[in-house]
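Journal club prep — side note

Before the paper discussion, L.F. wants everyone to see what a predicted structure for a comparable chain looks like in token form. Sequence:
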Amino acid sequence: MKTQQYLVKPGKAVKLSAWNTDDDGSLDKADAPPLLTQMQQELAHWQERLHAESKQALLVVLQARDAAGKDGVVKNVIAAFNPNGVSVSNFKVPTEEEKAHDFLWRVHARAPRHGLIGVFNRSHYEDVLVTRVYDMIDSKTAERRLAQIRNFEELLADSGTRIVKIYLHISPDEQKQRLQDRLDDPEKHWKFNPGDLKDREKWDKFTAAYEDALSTSTEVAPWYVVPADRKWYRDLVISQVLLDTLKDMNPQYPEITFDPSKITIK
């Protein structure tokens, strides 16, 4: 699969209306399971090499509107990795302790160490999205924070962490259907948050905030706008992006300091 069409080129302004939400890559849904299984096996292989080398780390940032499928990506894509080598962090409303520090303080502490894969299921970008839409910060503060985020990501990259940022691009109609599904199915009631409807009412304001956030796509921390209306295709695209990234990182097994042929286990 080719994923370059979903890459936000550094320095380019983003208009989300120009990006398709229901792309299927000219694939059939029936073709997805074997493709996903194959990529999951490859992802597990490259994760093992990353862990064995322990000189690099991978950080996956997931951002999306409600019901776009962040948890589904963790379940269907990130689950390919050995859980011993993965940390998943979810940044919600900051605690009093966290608010007493700079907005990146709590985030930096959860960055993956070398050899590991870190997943931010919501991330430091919440501090230039929700806070901006609900007028907790002004535009100048948002611009300053976006610049600080770029510097933060450059710091991580300089320290050996590869960063991949993924925006799950869902349409208003598809979000409506998924929210309704949560209301209609008693087993999904726990997923429904009435507060999500407030965010939905501010769709255009969130769009503008996301477009500015996506402008932080850089060579060392690129953004991908992944079509999310079709869950099966969403998972394939993200799996391919992560697989391409790990292959490009090319972690190596460490050299051994002994000759296996001269060792006898009695």
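L.F.'s comment for the group: The beta strands are 57-64, 86-89, 117-121, 161-169, 223-227. Keep this in mind when we get to the figures.
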